[in-house]
Amino acid sequence: QGAPGWHVSEFPNAAGVKVAVVGSGFAGITAAYRLKQAGLDFTVFEKNSEIGGVWWENTYPGCRLDTPNFAYSLSFAQKQDWTQQFSQQPEILRYLQDVVRRAGIRSNIRVNTEVESLEFDEAKAAWKVTARTADGGVHVEHFNFVITAMGLLNRPHVPDFPGLESFRGEVVHSAAWRPDVSVKGKRVALIGTGASAFQIGPEIYSQVDKLHVFQRNAPWMLPTPTYHDDLKPGIQWLLNHVPAYGRWVRFWQFWIGVEGRLHLVEVDPAWQHEVSISAGNEALRQECLATLQQQFADRPDLLVHATPNYPPGAKRMLRDNGTWPQMLKADNVKLVTQEISHLSENAIHTRDGQRHEVDLIICATGFKAADFLYPLKVTGRDGLDLHAHWDGDCRAYLGISVPGFPNLFMTSGPNTGVVVNGSAIFSSECQVEYSLRALRHVLGQGFKTVDCRTGPYVSYNAWIDKGNETKAWAVAKTSSWYKNKSGRAAQTWPFGMLEYWNLTATFRPEDHVLS
Ligand code: N01
């Protein structure tokens, strides 16, 4: 449940070796924690004024976890006293700040410093890191190794609606919420019905004059009756009094709730239905459908629109304990399912010619997820530009390294997203562990660079694609952030979590060029 710690003695040749970490969210903090254990010299660059990544940036009303926090927390910093099972943003941010304080890594973190480019310097066998500080200054420094921990779902995507610039009201993206944004008494548009909208809508609808919810595809809701609840006193007692009880909760959440769900999104070729992909998937669909039918028993008009037309698991399923249907049924809430055609001075217009007058538009429209490492410019060996090399189809070996970009390790890289079968935190811990294993090998053998070979990179990605081809998210025609522009599932890890753990548990020198 937690990797053993690293020790300085494992890196005897590390004098003068410097490591840069880009980002101080969950993954960056993990990297910093492990690098400190290993006794390596490191600097974490953070673009924001505070650590925490998305848990610092996302302050929209209702922001909280939708993965249980015992699984969505760090193996080396388990917390027994979570107040809820799906914590709210302030509690998670406090947790991260506490981990940083206890680990003594705050002084290694340069806040207000955004890394803009990485350029591999062959002569120095190091990356030239160029960062811009909030006051406009430029910081340039060379590092032997770089670990990117920039997250994935953090660069807001605001659709290019025709007429957006003519809208006179306020526009705010869910992930760029500002403290001065008030919804009280306003006519509000909530565009999108993903995880962010699902938390915002139920939190604000009772405060607004009118809420227009713009839905393109209805999401599947995973019935979670305790979603907003505090931990029950009995569980609190067990956590406080039974040694390692929290670890058991964590283990249970990983094993039953996570590993146990993968088969539900596996395509059975003999199963010939449009809305489900296997008997197990159909059973899950029926379970979710039954809850929907019950919730909208009095509103068949809404039920039609709230029922998805694709297999559950094809895009991220959302937690619900009845608050979303309750919101949709409120008198001041209107579900709009017609496509948005354009915006004007004070309204959103839909393709059916309707005009929806609003004062405030909340874009819960997701992120630029397909562009890994965006907007960082990465130039590897022989001037190779990483994004040009990817050409919109981002790939990596183990989701971590790319040939031609030596000494660069990614966390949350291509095809590492564990969407029904894991926790992003577990995944990024695996990536950090692997990076340190690679460093130990390279430095231990007296080398300066490690570069992934093309053969293993290609065969690994072929294996990933094959795994994804049999999953709900690949066969379903619905849109999702799992896929890139060409329709390839570039985000999703298609196997079990233990498989990823196993794969990243060993550094394979034969898959690399060491020099
Ligand atoms: O973004 P999304 P999100 N016109 O991309 C719609 C994580 N997360 O911020 O479904 C109209 O899922 C789009 O429509 P459609 C979590 O992993 C975690 O909600 O594509 N609508 C969709 O409904 C999550 O999966 C937590 O048809 C447009 C919505 O906008 C991920 O972040 C909390 C549109 C975007 O949904 C992203 O969630 C919140 C357009 N032009 C988020 N363009 C936790 O609790 C897009 N949409 C940890």
From TrEMBL:
<keyword id="KW-0285">Flavoprotein</keyword>
<dbReference type="GO" id="GO:0050660">
    <property type="term" value="F:flavin adenine dinucleotide binding"/>
</dbReference>
<keyword id="KW-0503">Monooxygenase</keyword>
<protein>
    <submittedName>
        <fullName>Putative flavin-containing monooxygenase</fullName>
    </submittedName>
</protein>
<keyword id="KW-0560">Oxidoreductase</keyword>
<keyword id="KW-0274">FAD</keyword>
<dbReference type="GO" id="GO:0050661">
    <property type="term" value="F:NADP binding"/>
</dbReference>
<dbReference type="GO" id="GO:0004499">
    <property type="term" value="F:N,N-dimethylaniline monooxygenase activity"/>
</dbReference>
